[in-house]
Every structure is written in C-alpha cells, then in structure tokens.
Amino acid sequence: MAYYETVILARREISPTQFETLLNDLETYLKENSANISRKENWGLRPLAYKIRKSSKAYYGLLNYDAPKELVFEFARRMSLMEDVVRELTVTTESLPTEPSEIVRGRDDR
Question: In the prediction, which pLDDT does 110 show?
C-alpha cells in the first residue's frame, strides 16, 4: 500500500458541524475499506486563492492515510459526486505524518 494525503474543500454555505460530519463520514469510509488513517485535520473556513463557483472562502480538511490505489480512485470518485465538496486533491507521500500540520501549528502558536 502507498501513503496518501488528501485536501478537501467544501462549500462555505454549510455549517462547521456539517463539515465535521462530512470529514467523519469520509474517514469512516476509508476505515471500512481497510485504510489506515494517521491524521485528520479540520482547518476551518479559509480564503481561497481564487474564486470557485463565485465563492471566495471554503472549509478545508486534511486526511493522511495508507490505502490501496483502487480505494484512492474510488474515494476521489465518491467525493466528486458529493455536492458539498468543491475540490479535492490527493497526492502520494513518502511517509505517514502523525504530528500536526504547519497550518494547525501556526494556529496554536497564536
């Protein structure tokens, strides 16, 4: 299995609890299909670099996991069918980080 990192952008119109539920549902789907999740982060509502669907902000989430390639393709397909998910990006990584990301560490330093 390979290591993956997925960043999820969700519509700004949903509530923070709905976004947390969305992240939990995605995490549950991965776990049910034999993925090992090392990190799940909710980055909250953040500005976008450019407008997407006439919106300048979106909810950001991060998942780091170890899964088979076929599961990653199906996971991306499922997210593309969700109306609350605006964009998603999945990349391979060399290891599974367990410590908080720079965005969360920067938020904690304030």
Answer: 53
Kind plus residue range of the DSSP H or E element containing 22: helix 16-32
Q: State the average pLDDT for the chain.
A: 89
CA distance 45 to 72: 25
Which percentage of the chain shows pLDDT scores above 70?
96
pLDDT at 30 over 90: yes
CA-atom Rg of the chain in angstroms: 14
Domains in the chain: boundaries: 2-109
Residue given tokens 């776990």 in the structure block = 31
SS3 of residue 33 by DSSP = coil
- What does DSSP say about strands 36-52 and 2-10: parallel, antiparallel, or unpaired? unpaired
To the question of domain 2-109 being in CATH 3.30.70.60, the answer is yes
Distance between CA atoms of residues 21 and 51, nearest Å = 25
